[in-house]
Amino acid sequence: MEKLLGSSEPPLRSAPGSGACCVTALIEGKEIIISNLGDCRAVLCRNGVAEALTRDHRAEREDERKRIEDKGGYVELHKGGWRVHGVLTVSRSIGDAHLKDWVPAEPDTKTLSLTPDMEYLVLTSDGIWDQVGNQEAIDLIMQSCLREKSMQKTINNWMTSEDENGNENDGPPAKARRVSTVNQTKRSMKIYCPNQENMSGLKMKQHSNALMSACRELGNLAVSRGNSDDITVMIIDLNHFKS
Fold it and tell me: What Gene3D superfamilies does this protein's entry cite (predicted)?
């Protein structure tokens, strides 16, 4: 702290405070507007291939370091990573008032046209991306959705099948009923699905189960690899915006 407050270094504001990062998506008509600030990230699934739509605002970025230095600040290696004034790993944020001269709350924004090859949009905090790769996350989501579709198909087949006496079965076998019940309990998790009011009850149930399962699996994977930060995950199915 003496170095930060010394006369040869840019002065810090008096009251250090906490900060936050964010990533947002606005889908309007056939346009997707993405903004990011800090190290949250938006990743697009395009025909099963991950495409990062944002670039993390981190202190090790050459352009961010130059911007900070041009304003009289500095970036140094501290505790295994590059940090603004030896303190903050992100180079832009909301809050962090004591560093605001060098760590602005200015997002990057881009606009994309919604195209048929776009499948899912993933918005998460750095708690995921510090441990899970972009393509790895997309692969996990695709697998989760395929499993849900397969399970629902199995259940639907049992629901409509007839026994040898010509009577319809009461429902799927016990194992399938148990799995279905477990999936339904996941509805208590908050899933961000901007167009859910336009979906039928059964379709919404299948959609939510698959997305909730993917959110849970992504979080569990990051935690199993050592993440100790809070995790926020949003998965948007873009197929429902193409009609």
Answer: PPM-type phosphatase domain
